Amino acid sequence: MAITRWNPFSEFEDILDRYNRSLQGQARNSENGKEVIRKADWAPAVDITETKEAFLIKAELPGVDKSHVKVAVHEGVLSIQGERKLEKEEGDKKHHRVERFYGNFARSFTLPDNVDENNIRAEYRDGILTLHLNKVEKAQPKAIEINVQ
User: Fold this and answer.
1) What separation, in Å, do the N-terminal and C-terminal C-alpha atoms of the chain show?
2) 76 membership: H or E segment, kind and range
């Protein structure tokens, strides 16, 4: 009976290698011999709350530079897109565990009719993107009087 020494770092490296291979498989799918890049590699967690005056969206984006975040509204859909870049291994620095998601991210939300799309305010602090979406009053149906002549 042979005793084998357990090396936890070799298991970490094995897990990391399998993880990296799986990410490469997800990011590049072969389609007729061509590589297809996915639009989003991950989606940040968000909280959406509502008050009488506004909706509030908070998205967790730790480690994402503000310049890599884009917020847009088009045809009633609010989109948050960006990228979190992976640190490159340099010299004697070696990653033993990578659990955070890296790459492109995207979230989209259909806005209710009572959101003022022209008055959306965004703040970015401590890795949290906060969007303030002010409400407007819905147009009330008007009664039109018909004159008979």
Assistant:
1) 109
2) none
Phi first, then psi, for residue 16 (nearest 5°) are -60, -40
Contact (Cβ atoms closer than 8 angstroms) between residue 89 and residue 95: yes
Per-position b or e across 68-95, b if 16+ CB within 10 A of its CB: ebebeeeeeebebbbbbeeeeeeeeeee
CA atoms within 13 A on the CB side of 109: 22
Contact 68, 84 (CB under 8 A): yes
pTM, rounded to two decimals: 0.64
Of residues 87, 27, 82, 26, the one with CA closest to residue 59: 82
Over residues 53-95, the pLDDT tens digits come to 999 999 999 989 999 999 999 989 999 999 998 877 777 777 7
Structure tokens at 44: 């940040």
